[in-house]
Amino acid sequence: MTETLKPQPWMTAEPTRKVMAALHAVGPARFVGGCVRDALLGKAVSDIDIATPLAPQAVIDALKAAGLRAVPTGIEHGTITAVADGKPFEITTLRRDVETDGRRAVVAFTGDWAEDAARRDFRLNSLYLDEDGAIYDPTGEGVADARAGQIVFVGDAGTRIREDYLRILRFFRFFARYGRGEPDVAALNACAALREGMRGLSGERVSQELLKVLAADDPRPALRLMAASGVLGVILPEVQGLARCEALVGIEAGQLFTCDPALRLAALLPDDTQAVRVAATRLRLSNTLRDRLLAAVSGEPKLTSWMSPREVRRAVYRLGAPAFKDRVMLAWAASGGEVAAPQWRMLTVYPDTWTPPAFPISAEEIKAAGVEPGPMHGKVRREVEDWWIDMDFTDDKLAAIERLKAVAQGMVR
């Protein structure tokens, strides 16, 4: 034990007390990892992880005896999820690595808290906390690292990375969120030297960590280190520079916009839909995120800060409000972030003040004009719609019908 922490609301909440009471009925248990680190730093705690020397089956039996739900989410690695009053708690048996291949590990369970701490990634994540607020720091440096903003691997950095190459990205993710000052030299050198090992990781794991890096309040120092160390080039070779992304982060902070990791990813990528498709496939991005990125980097129509209201309405209609906002933010960032800031900001809120009208011509009216369903039907509709947009979305229904008749007559001949 190194020091004590005043009991936190999440520690004394009824669901937490139920889970800890169930475990203490048969053996010891302590909070571990992120919740301890964040509580120590005065940050909000969301996920609560618990460590215990109890075997997984003993954990399940203890939870069921207390009337709590037990879900064997990762029982082969000693992890059981307890559910109390609808809130999940991840409970993991103390363990040590028996065999690793850079992606997954074979583990053996142990009753030794120090042995469990020795297999964890960073010293600030190897902290344990009991219900009375006593902090246990087996590495002897975890508390100091957390307070100093130092991200240091437990033991030898290269050894930890070879156990799971995803720890390279986790290093930059934790540096982005918690790091202060210069990075740990041994950690950074090991990440650079072993970066090729990340090529064996699944796209899902890589994209999850990358988006977490980008979700930090200010990921710019971490991104610079990732680029300089060659790590970014391994996981995202499409990146041609950081300037647009860095400018976007500055805009978000200066204009009080909510940080948007997906848009930051778009800012890293080139305005090349084929390159984005390749990256999205490699990173196994969801279809929703892939489509958002594609819409954001599409080059047409070109957006500028001096667009007229009529041009803005046309772009909002063509792109849709979400894609228009994304494109405005990227164009703003590409301009350097400061140029014409008031005009750019007005463009970001324009879709909130103007709702595109519905196209006034129905399919039945196109058919009534002598155009049968089929390819010609769509061609006529597009021609009339282009006219309607050029007329700044006129609400003159009669004029639209007359235009339809003229187009239909000219095309159907």
Question: Which short descriptors sum up this protein?
Answer:
Beta Polymerase, domain 2, elongated, two-stranded antiparallel sheet, alpha+beta, cca-adding enzyme, domain 2, 4 domains, 22 helices, 8-stranded mixed beta sheet, 413 residues
Structure in a nutshell:
This protein has 413 residues and is an alpha+beta fold.
> Could you tell me the number of beta strands?
10
CA-to-CA gap between the ends?
A: 89 Å
Give the strand content: 5-15%
Helix content: 40-55%
The fourth-level CATH homologous superfamily of the largest domain is Beta Polymerase, domain 2
Helical region count?
22
Strand order of the largest sheet: 1-10-9-2-3-6-5-4
Q: How would you sum up the major sheet?
A: 8 strands, mixed
User: Could you report the average pLDDT, rounded to the nearest whole number?
Assistant: 92
Shape: elongated
- Uncertain stretches of 5 or more adjacent residues: none
The top level CATH class name of the largest domain: Alpha Beta
Q: From the helix content, strand content and strand pairing, which structural class follows?
A: alpha+beta
